[in-house]
TrEMBL record, chain A:
InterPro entries: AAA+_ATPase, ABC_SmlMolc_Importer, ABC_transporter-like_ATP-bd, ABC_transporter-like_CS, Mo/tungstate-bd_C_term_dom, P-loop_NTPase, Transp-assoc_OB_typ2. It comes from Phyllobacterium pellucidum. One of its GO terms (molecular function) is ATP binding. Residues 8-238 form the ABC transporter domain. GO terms for biological process: quaternary ammonium group transport. Keywords: ATP-binding, Nucleotide-binding, Transport. It comes from the Bacteria. This is ABC transporter ATP-binding protein. Pfam families: ABC_tran, TOBE_2. Belongs to the ABC transporter superfamily. One of its GO terms (cellular component) is ATP-binding cassette (ABC) transporter complex. The keyword Transmembrane does not apply.
From TrEMBL, chain B:
Its main location: membrane. Residues 223-428, 521-711 form the ABC transmembrane type-1 domain. This is Iron ABC transporter permease. The chain crosses the membrane at residues 7-27, 59-77, 86-110, 130-149, 158-179, 227-249, 261-283, 303-330, 351-373, 379-398, 410-431, 458-480, 501-521, 527-547, 559-579, 591-611, 647-670, 690-715.
């Protein structure tokens, strides 16, 4: 239904609220037909970025291009984007069909045609036959789909979604995010998706842009971010990670040898230079063996049994490590001395 | 065509119409009479602006036409910084010049001598601005706004920018210009030249400022008397209001619903009606006076006519308002505070004095200030009861209409009155702001309010019950009074007064309205019906701008609007008379001036109601509409207004009712052609025709009750038809609360 999918470019965009700078010098480039996530902790400026794209805020300086056209000064209602709001913002006094047809009628389409297109849009999201209900008569998940349909029937160059799942319960979230992703891939539109949930971001995105305090901390594919975090912030934010100081002993171009305590280990090189450095170690990349003597010794401080795995906090000379161990039968008691090892995967050298 | 071009075309169309299609100047016989068509466009009085400029050699209009041409040229540029700057410059300069030339060139030439010395004498003056000037001004304001919008101001939203600019322009013309004229008027002599002597003489007048009542035993000056009266009225109505509120919320009083009905009374009661009823009770020929003199053989006294009488009437009038404010305050004290106090071994008495009452203090202060402002602004009761012992508001009136005819004195008195009320308003806004301990909605807190201590409970009942009965008697008087032939002298029942006021006959198949009241009654209805929707529209639009838009100077904008409500009606009346009697704007004696007065006086209430209702609407609803390609205008029409329906109804009802009941400003502005019910009734009172006056008043009250219930039913119906959570949330915000704070 959509073949006008567009790119998005921000060049040196800055946004101030009074004296407070919410966005510092943001530049980004989003390819047509991709789903890009803006990810970051609460207050980092994701919504502000999205709202500038929608035209609901205007940048203090910089330029915004949609589909190659400069829209920096264009008001929201003249931009070729549409948005799914966190609260859905369905008009409570209009039926579902009127809601979906609203944008089409605003653009000047004849009422009968708008209604028909709205019906089609509802069918797209699996809500055929719900048109005459009021939004309050739908479940949360259905309301969410109406909001998506309402945005999509306009065939925007870019679809914006601001934390679209945050009002759904945990079970529904997983299903709806899959639906959104499938819809996006089927129809091939460009989507900018805001979330603070890293798992959600990993699950749906072609690319992830991680923001921190109004600047981009890192961008890349989900896999790049997970496997090669650029900073300890990213490492900890995308999946949990233990950041451990280490010594880089050598680097042969593909692999580097590092040493933590007296334990030596091989990891992907990532242009590490010899000398002190840090590694990000995923909680499930750490092995524990009960042992009195070890190259990298530790002592169990706390253990929590969680059904399919056990979580440990382990005291070591490199700090407290958080470990996820699938071997539930072993259940190491607190104060047990252990020897710590690393799996091959799940460790990344942090360059800065 | 781009939206930016389309809207500019509209503005250009309006401006061209203003310059070419209608007379530039005011038509003496009235624009809507269309008599001007006969001599249009060549008559010197009827010519449009473009001919006035080039046929009749008015260089000032030629300059405006030139500025307009710049805007036309800009229209054909592509959207660019140059184009928007040209529009801003043309619009801004055009408006400024239009205003300047209007003020500077009067009927006979230059208004100020400084221009004469600078530019030399003018051959010809000019009359007041008319339709053409108005349309052109509108177009210039729009150019300015659209230029700003193209520059990206307010996210490029032309509707919002244009609304703000227009509102500021209108408020400047209809609030600040008249009040400013009044200040200027204080320093002018009759012919308009600068003459401070009147001001100096009046401001030092001992009859205004003397404090003899404190030291010498004589009467105090009028300013002080008004001030003391206001303090006493405010104290009385606050204390009574608190008692009523306590009874209504903290006791098991059986008639609480009835008490709450009291709060509607001040809205539907024309302000002098209480005074009128008091006269029927306690005046020289009043029922009570007659009975007492009959039984005890004392001579009927005139004690009612003076400050005592005014005070009683005002306390009766304003206690319901204070009650309404204080119900919220008393309910707002969190029950958990009181419960906490009780678990800390405090008894009910101690809890009330140490916890509940201190928590209500800011609310009490607020109620006091409201009572103070209302008393200061009250015109009807002092007019009916004051006689020669007037207060500032009536004295202002007599300074212009009476034999004195001293506009300078009126202006000085108005300034003094304004200073009093504005000080109280500022105290309310600045000092009390943020001091409220009460939770605004009273929600979320579980637990029940504790009952009053026994002795206190007895005390408040002892006050409330007699006063409520007294109020009932007073209102009963109003209803009964119209059916009694001559109070005190001949108490037989009769329809005579109603017949005199409202008789009609069928003649030749048509209804002939033969009653004396019909003329003013229909005028009142007409003016109220025209001004109510305008008031509601302007008020709600303003509310939308204040709640939903962040723009430079927003808080100043809001403050100025709210302040205009603290300007007493008498001051508005006198300033309208002073401002709109001479060029550049002449409106006295027209319906337009009454409508403008109502719209800008009652608008703040619409603003307040709209702000309250709109704050409950999720902002993302408007934003969703915007991202769905709707303009702000469409958003308001399709999304916001339908959700605000109850607030709209409340604003409509309120402004309608206020237009019917108000007297203070109106009495200055009525004319033979447009006489309003209230001023007509006051005339009847002055002639001693109490029977007809009371009959007419009760008729008005009944009409308003019918209208209010009608509207309430409509709102209720809507709620039944659609189970709409958003809508029902607003319903409690309907009529009564509106008068809560001035
Ligand atoms: N209208 C506003 N006025 C002032 N500050 C704002 C406004 N909108 C957002 N901010 C601030 O900008 C920062 C980024 O906000 P936002 O983009 O909403 O963050 P998030 O990443 O959680 O969506 C926050 O610190 C927020 O307080
Ligand atoms: Mg956010």
């Amino acid at each position: 239904m959509n073949n006008r999918t567009g790119s998005v470019v921000f060049t040196n965009v800055k946004k101030q609220f009074g004296s407070f700078t919410a966005i510092h010098d943001l530049s980004l480039d989003i390819e047509p037909g991709t789903l890009v996530t803006l990810l970051g902790p609460s207050g980092c400026g994701k919504t502000t970025t999205l709202r500038m794209l929608a035209g609901l805020e205007h940048p203090t300086s910089g330029r915004i291009l949609i589909g190659g056209k400069d829209v920096t000064m264009l008001p929201a209602n003249e931009r070729d984007v549409s948005m799914v709001f966190q609260s859905y913002a369905l008009f409570p006094h209009m039926s579902v069909l009127e809601n979906v047809a609203y944008g089409l009628e605003s653009s000047g389409m004849k009422k009968s045609e708008a209604r028909q297109r709205a019906e089609e849009g509802l069918t797209q999201v699996g809500l055929a036959g719900y048109g005459q209900r009021l939004p309050a008569e739908l479940s949360g998940g259905q309301q969410q789909r109406v909001a998506v349909a309402r945005a999509l029937v306009l065939e925007p160059q870019v679809l914006l979604l601001d934390e679209p799942l945050s009002n759904l319960d945990a079970r529904l979230r997983r299903r709806v995010r899959t639906e959104i992703r499938e819809l996006q891939q089927r129809l091939g539109f460009t989507a900018v998706y805001v979330t603070h949930d890293q798992e959600e971001a990993l699950a749906v995105s072609d690319r992830i842009i991680v923001m921190q305090d109004g600047v981009i901390a890192q961008q890349g594919s989900p896999r790049e971010l997970y496997e090669a975090p650029a900073s300890s912030f990213i490492a900890d934010f995308i999946g949990e990670a233990n950041v451990v100081p280490c010594e880089v002993l050598g680097n042969d171009g593909t692999e580097a040898i590092i040493r933590v305590a007296r334990l030596e280990h091989r990891v992907p090189a990532r242009s590490a230079r010899p000398g002190p450095a840090r590694i990000a170690v995923r909680p499930n990349a750490i092995t524990l063996e009960a042992a009195e003597e070890a190259a990298f010794p530790g002592s169990i401080r706390h253990a929590a049994y969680l059904g399919d795995h056990v979580e440990y906090e382990v005291e070591t000379e490199a700090g407290t490590l958080f470990v996820v161990d699938p071997a539930i039968d072993r259940n190491l008691a607190p104060a047990t001395n252990v020897s710590i090892g690393f799996h091959h995967r799940g460790i990344a050298i942090i360059n800065n | 065509m781009e939206r930016s071009d389309r809207r500019l075309n509209i503005a250009l169309g309006i401006g061209l119409a203003g310059l070419v299609l209608v007379p530039w100047y005011r038509i003496e016989a009235g624009f809507y009479g269309l008599s001007w068509l006969k001599n249009f466009p060549t008559g010197s009085a009827e010519a449009p602006g473009i001919l006035q400029a080039f046929e009749f050699g008015r260089w000032n209009l030629a300059l405006i036409a030139l500025i307009f041409a710049v805007a036309i040229a800009a229209r054909f540029l592509r959207v660019s910084a140059l184009r928007s700057n040209l529009l801003i410059a043309a619009g801004g300069a055009g408006i400024l010049f239009l205003v300047w030339q209007g003020l500077a060139i009067g009927y006979t030439g230059w208004s100020w001598t400084i221009n004469e010395t600078l530019f030399g004498p003018l051959a010809d003056g000019q009359p007041s601005m008319g339709a053409g000037a108005g349309l052109t001004a509108l177009a210039l304001v729009l150019f300015f706004a659209f230029g700003l919008a193209e520059r990206g101001v307010l996210r490029g939203d032309a509707f919002v920018v244009a609304s703000i600019t227009l509102l500021v322009f209108l408020v400047a013309i209809f609030v600040f210009y008249p009040v400013g004229s009044m200040f200027v008027g204080a320093f002018q002599s009759f012919d308009g030249s600068f003459d401070p002597s009147g001001f100096v003489r009046n401001i030092q007048d001992p009859s205004i400022w003397s404090l003899d009542c404190l030291v010498g035993g004589n009467r105090c000056g009028i300013a002080w008397r008004t001030f003391f009266l206001a303090v006493l009225t405010a104290s009385g109505s606050t204390i009574l209001g608190l008692c009523f509120a306590l009874v209504a919320t903290r006791t098991r009083f059986p008639f609480k619903k009835g008490l709450r009905l009291l709060t509607i009374l001040p809205i539907i009661t024309p302000p002098f009606v209480i005074g009128l009823a008091l006269i029927l009770l306690f005046g020289r020929a009043g029922v009570v006076t007659q009975q007492i003199s009959h039984i005890f053989g004392v001579e009927p006294g005139r004690w009612l006519y003076g400050l005592t009488g005014i005070w009683i009437a005002q306390v009766l009038s304003f206690t319901p308002i204070s009650f309404l404010v204080l119900i919220g305050v008393v309910e707002g004290v969190s029950p958990s505070m009181e419960e906490a106090s009780q678990t800390l071994r405090a008894d009910r008495w101690r809890t009330f004095w140490r916890i509940s009452l201190p928590l209500m203090k800011p609310g009490l202060a607020n109620a006091f200030l409201i009572g103070f402002i209302e008393s200061m602004a009250d015109f009807g009761n002092p007019l009916v009861l004051g006689g020669s012992h007037g207060v500032l508001s009536t004295e202002i009136f007599f300074a212009v209409v009476g034999s004195q005819n001293d506009p300078s004195r009126a202006a000085v008195l108005a300034i003094i009155l304004l200073v009093f009320t504005l000080s109280a308003f500022l105290a309310q806004r600045l000092w009390l702001a943020g001091k409220s301990f009460a939770t605004v909605t009273g929600k979320a807190d579980s637990g029940a309010h504790i009952a009053l201590p026994r002795s206190l409970s007895i005390g408040v009942h002892a006050i409330v019950i007699p006063w409520a009965l007294f109020t009932l008697v007073v209102y009963g008087m109003i209803l009964v009074g119209g059916f009694v032939r001559t109070w005190g002298l001949d108490n037989t029942l009769t329809f005579e007064h109603y017949q005199r006021a409202f008789s009609f006959a069928f003649e030749n198949g048509a209804i002939a309205w033969t009653g004396v009241a019909w003329n003013s009654f229909w005028t009142t209805m007409e003016i109220a019906l025209i001004s109510a929707p305008l008031t509601a529209a302007v008020g709600l639009l303003t509310a939308y701008l204040i709640v939903r838009q962040r723009f430079f100077g927003r808080s100043v904008f809001e403050f100025a609007l709210m302040m205009s409500f603290a300007i007493p009606g008498t001051v508005i009346g006198i300033s309208y008379v002073m401002a709109y009697n001479l060029p550049p704007l002449e409106m006295t004696g027209t319906a337009l001036i009454l409508i403008a007065c109502f719209v800008f006086r009652n608008m703040p209430v619409g603003v307040r109601g709209g702000v309250a209702a709109m704050s409950q609407l999720d902002k993302s609803l408007d934003e969703a509409s915007l991202t769905l390609r709707a303009t702000s205008f469409r958003t308001i029409r399709k999304v916001i207004l339908p959700l605000l329906r109850p607030a709209i109804v409340a604003a409509l009802v309120y402004s309608f009712v206020r237009a019917i009941t108000s007297i203070s400003a109106v009495i200055f502005l009525v004319s033979a052609q447009y006489n309003m019910a209230t001023s007509y009734i006051v005339g009847l009172v002055e002639n001693g025709e109490y029977g007809v006056a009371v009959a007419y008043s009760s008729m008005l009250i009944v009409v308003m009750i019918v209208i209010i219930t009608g509207f309430q039913l409509l709102v209720g119906e809507r709620r039944l038809r659609r189970e709409n959570r958003v809508a029902t949330a607003f319903v409690p915000a309907a009529v009564p609360q509106e008068k809560a704070t001035p």
